[in-house]
Amino acid sequence: MFFRKKIGIDLGTANTLVYVAGEGIVLNEPTVVAYSLDDKKILAVGEDAREMIGRTPGSIVASRPMKEGVIADYTTTSAMITYFLKKGLRSAIFWPEVMISIPGGSSQVEKRAVVAACKQAGASDVYLIEEPLAAAIGAKLPISQASGQMIVNIGGGTTEIAVISLGQLVVYKTVRVAGTKLDEAIMTELRKKHNMIIGERTAEDIKIKIGNALINDKQEIEERKMEVKGRDFQSGLPKIYEIGEKDVNLALIKPLKAILDGIKEVLSQTPPELAADIVDKGIVLSGGTALLTNIDRYITYYTGVSSFVVDEPLFCVIRGVGMAIENLDSFKEAIR
């Protein structure tokens, strides 16, 4: 019997994770590719390429081939999937079965692009699973029961909001606002208020270290501060500035409100019986951006529904994809 490897891929805007059946998560690297403009040759993928963002000469481009959860640059994405498959399997690829997560409600064109990119990378069968479903499986929610589960998967490029019952998405919405939009908001705020230009990596560091979704004026706690290095907008010279978490919070208000509006819209379209289940169980938050300080309190405060972040939210989707490919038969309904 010819045994084929089963592989799960969470192809995210910010990070790509690879799961090999029987081994678990074998790879977690940034979704970044660096290539030379002259001959389109791929120079680096993943962590090595991320180091190059904003630091490359004119002849080399370090970019994220996924924009808002969708393949923006087809050739680069295909080369990147090949690289991740080889690195994840640590050997030659013998037509593995691949399951890959896609945003909920992706168009047929987007789905075909993902399947074609995987086939080109050497996959024999490609299964697609919607991200909110994968996140719910990974969060160990009992999705096959006749009761409502609400999951909000806040990733790098998209926020997937879904109400799941009987193993299917009942109401879902993809908001094209997530981690990268938060970084951009921080960059814009610094440029407007403090005449300072910073790169996306610095903005991400600020978000991780002192980002806060909800600050109460009543709190007398010490405000976290951070030294930021960048370039002065007017003089063009290097500049160091100390930023506090209140400034960062002001920058994050607009993109966080877009995510909140999406959650409210899904709640407003949820059938009343399922809405009653959600009030009982609360909203489950997963995805890397769910690690933002107080994001659960922010959602609870503005929706009135208790919400909580799962353990290791970054690995939620890939665990779900892994469980689904290891038990293909029991998840047949969920898979496209």
Q: What value does the average pLDDT take?
A: 87
If helices are DSSP runs of H or I spanning 4 or more residues, what is the number of helices? 10
Structural class: alpha+beta
The radius of gyration computed from the alpha-carbon positions, rounded to a whole number of angstroms, is 21 Å
Trace the largest sheet across and list its strands: 3-2-1-9-10
- Can you tell me the CATH superfamily of the largest domain? ATPase, nucleotide binding domain
User: How many strands, what sense, and barrel or not for the largest sheet?
Assistant: 5 strands, mixed
In terms of DSSP E residues, the strand content is 25-35%
The SSE order reads EEEEEHEEEHEHEHEEEHEHEEHHEHEH
Q: End-to-end span in angstroms?
A: 27 Å
- The level 1 CATH classification of the largest domain is Alpha Beta
Helix percentage: 25-40%
Work out the count of structural domains. Answer: 3
- CATH architecture tag of the largest domain: 2-Layer Sandwich
Coarse morphology = flat
Stated plainly, the CATH topology of the largest domain is called Nucleotidyltransferase, domain 5
Structure summary, number of beta strands: 18
